[in-house]
Design brief:
Blueprint (H helix, E strand, L loop, with lengths): L10 H27 L4 H7 L4 H24 L8 H24 L4 H29 L6 H30 L4 H23 L17 H7 L3 H18 L5 H8 L4 H29 L1 H14 L10 H29 L5 H27 L6 E3 L2 E3 L5 H19 L14 H5 L5 H16 L1
Length: about 450
């Protein structure tokens, strides 16, 4: 009996796969510089422009809602383009140019400054969302199912270290101009963000897009996709993802206000707090990727969904700077896994031909939850008292925001308890009981192996 050689991809396909993978990594690096030097400081810039909690809510929610419309538009007009790289290119160009109105319009019309920052951010994130369906469809077609976790973890890790460097340099730059001319510092940051985002266009030009060849054609509209193109597990996953975004965004936009206005941290202190989360992501992303490929994204979501619930509750414990840095470090660890699981579950749960539809629908659900959460958080700021007493226990934090963070954590926990058990893993993966899986988690796995080795040596 003769052995057959495994099927070989034609040279054109191999070239396209390699160019696409390289672009995904380079694009991640350029995007990370933009995130670290621009996106992460948008809320701080809005506060400098006299933004209120309501403005911060809009800054968080409105770009996501408009971005959802941009994704739906992108899916609807995808057949207008001969290659999937075209919508990606236009989205990147829009992101690069959006930093000009973000910076200049608030300075030209200071009486409308907070609203103009929100409008510029909507243009920026709308452009990013327009590119997202085609970007995800292109990259995932170039990856095998059991290598996506490792690849996206590698990409995220590159982004984490790059964003960390940009974030630290940005914090130092803002601190240099903080006392005299802070606007100069923001101008330098935002120009850097726009320049590096534009570099992705040149990298994209080297990508060779293959013709889309799937066993079954994609559903032509999103309603048909939702009606007959999705499984019960995927629809229940959407409910979990949407409600988790509601719970998370009740607190998400207001950490910058708590740190800069209530605790009066300098820009370098705020930048260090942000950087701690990026370090946590960088250290653990490879482990989360291996965990995802081996045990599945459902197991990943189960552990991180519960862990992420307790993080905001701990802001009631202390406002000490070192404690906040440590807490956000572990926040980065957990969020690295949760974000990876939320993204990759979509790729596994829908047919390859429908991945653009799946990404668009998931983004729509998440953006709706995002908007509901931020507006609810804004309302809670005007409702929740600034101190509470429970018998002998008296809580008097710097503001009422730690109580809102606690409410966010309770809602995250309720969402995880109620919904994580309602959907299953769509891939064939290795199954282990939760107690065994616990020893495979990043940070815990090396410690478990070290402990086992010490026990074996002690028995000899």
């Amino acid at each position: 009996m003769s052995l057959q050689e495994p099927p070989r991809h034609p040279p054109q396909a191999v070239s396209a796969h390699e160019s696409g993978k390289r672009f995904g990594l380079r694009d991640g690096v350029f995007q990370a510089v933009t995130q670290g030097s621009g996106e992460q400081y948008l809320s701080a810039f809005a506060l400098l422009m006299h933004a209120t909690p309501f403005h911060l809510s809009l800054l968080s929610a409105l770009p996501q809602l408009l971005g959802t419309g941009a994704q739906l538009l992108s899916v609807h007009v995808a057949h207008w383009f001969s290659h999937r790289t075209a919508p990606v290119r236009w989205g990147i160009i829009g992101q690069s140019l959006a930093w000009i109105p973000i910076l200049t319009l608030p300075l030209l019309f200071p009486e409308w400054a907070p609203w103009l920052v929100v409008a510029g951010a909507a243009l920026y994130f709308g452009s990013a969302h327009f590119a997202a369906p085609s970007w995800n469809s292109l990259i995932t077609d170039l990856l095998e199912a059991n290598e996506r976790g490792a690849y996206f973890a590698r990409r995220s890790r590159l982004m984490a270290v790059t964003s960390f460097a940009a974030l630290c340099l940005g914090g130092i730059l803002l601190s240099l101009f903080e006392q005299q001319r802070p606007l100069i510092g923001f101008a330098l940051l935002f120009m850097t963000a726009g320049f590096f985002r534009s570099l992705s266009v040149r990298s994209l030009a080297q990508v060779t897009d293959l013709p889309v060849q799937h066993d079954e054609p994609a559903h032509q509209n999103l309603m048909a996709f939702l009606r007959i193109g999705t499984s019960r597990d995927f629809r229940r996953f959407l409910v979990f993802s949407g409600l988790m975004h509601v719970a998370v965004l009740i607190s998400g936009p207001f950490f910058v206000m708590y740190l800069l206005q209530d605790l009066h941290l300098p820009y370098w202190g705020y930048g260090t707090w942000l950087a701690a989360a990026i370090i946590g992501q960088f250290i653990t992303l490879p482990g989360w990727g291996r965990f995802s490929d081996r045990f599945g994204n459902k197991a990943l979501l189960t552990f991180t969904g519960f862990l992420v619930s307790f993080l905001p509750m701990l802001y009631l414990v202390s406002s000490a700077w070192c404690f906040l840095i440590t807490l956000n470090f572990f926040g980065g660890v957990v969020w690295a896994g949760l974000s990876l699981g939320l993204n990759n579950y979509v790729f596994d749960a829908v047919r390859p031909a429908d991945r653009a539809n799946g990404v668009a629908v998931t983004s729509t659900v998440n953006a709706t939850g995002w908007a509901i959460g931020t507006m609810t958080g804004s309302w809670l700021i005007s409702t929740v008292p600034g101190s509470m007493e429970f018998g002998a226990l008296s809580l008097h934090p710097a503001s009422n925001l730690p109580f809102i963070f606690f409410i966010s954590g309770v809602l995250r926990l309720a969402t995880s308890i109620a919904l994580l058990r309602t959907f299953r893993e769509p891939r064939q993966v290795e199954h282990r009981p939760p107690s065994r899986l616990l020893c495979e988690l990043p940070l815990i796995a090396p410690l478990s192996r070290w402990t086992l080795e010490r026990l074996k040596e002690s028995r000899r």
